[in-house]
Amino acid sequence: MALLELAVSAQDLAHTRFAFSPIWEVVASMRVLKQPGDHALHLAWVKETRATLGEAGLDIGLLADLVPDKQLPGFLAATPVTPVPELADELADLRDVPPKVVRRSLDELDPPRSVALARFYRNPEAGLERLARLIEAYWELALEPHWLRIRPLLEGDVLHRSRLLVEGGPDLLLNDLSPMVSWKDGKLIIAHSPVSNSLSLDRRGLVLVPSAFVWPRVFSRTDPRWQLVLRYPARGIATLWEQGRTTSSGALAAVIGRSRAILLTELDAPASTAELARRTRLTAGGVSQHLGVLRAAGLVSAHRAGRSVLYSRTSAAEGLLATSGQVDC
């Protein structure tokens, strides 16, 4: 396994930020469609999406050709410039990529060049417009129907890791990102096959991007003109496509009620009312009422993240669940 070693200064840590990127989810989900056997958590989504794309007759060949197993063309997954960019803004940036940058990026891809890529190379301006429209169509069919469950997952990850940074500093934050990422003695070590190098961040900082579709891998972007980007699996990814999975212990349910016990058990990661309703099959109104009671009892806290309000367990709830045998201490 190749290692990317990053020398991270105190100034780099001060400039480190979180963001997530709809266009990256497009790219990462395309990898999942191409190699579903490597992404077992998403098999239900793969089956549904393949059927949807087939029924719509959408030709995704150009996008698939631009997403090889190894290195991506740099223009396709740019560094997010805001914490929560909209897809339309990212596509506007994509349409503005200079032709020479497109050609240089395509030259870096492994041969042979497909017919679609050869056409793209000959006329980058028209190719970027074609690609942007294809991404819009793919998004509408494959990802937009699920975005209301994906987005809270990403927002919850950022909230969780922001707390880790406050509670334990960079040691706790960076060592918790992925088994493929470790932090020791001022160096961030990333184990992933495409890259083997030692770099300095040069006081530019780091952009941490949680992703729903990157699991089980991590990806980095090391273009020296931008902040280095590290894309890692969002916390709670295993629950993304599950419904009605949670059970509660009889002892805990007897104390606070079955529905509230289920909700507490479900909050392994911060989640919105809508997401909890989807997972537990309780009504949104019922979830909201139960969360209000749990919050008043000091068992749940609420935090705004972008457009959503995310709920998470308090330390008192963690102790209650550990006592009842619902979670490990």
Shape: globular
User: Which regions have little confidence, pLDDT < 50, spanning 5+ residues?
Assistant: none
**Main pleated-sheet profile:** 4 strands, mixed
The helix-strand sequence is EHEHHHHHHHHEEEEEEHHHHEEH
Number of helices: 14
Distance between termini? Answer: 33 Å
Label the structural class.
alpha/beta
Percent helix, as a range, is 40-55%
Question: What would the keywords be for this entry?
Answer:
single chain; Arc Repressor Mutant, subunit A; four-stranded mixed beta sheet; alpha/beta; 3 domains; globular
Short summary:
Helices cover 48% and strands 14% of the residues. With 329 residues, it is of the alpha/beta class.
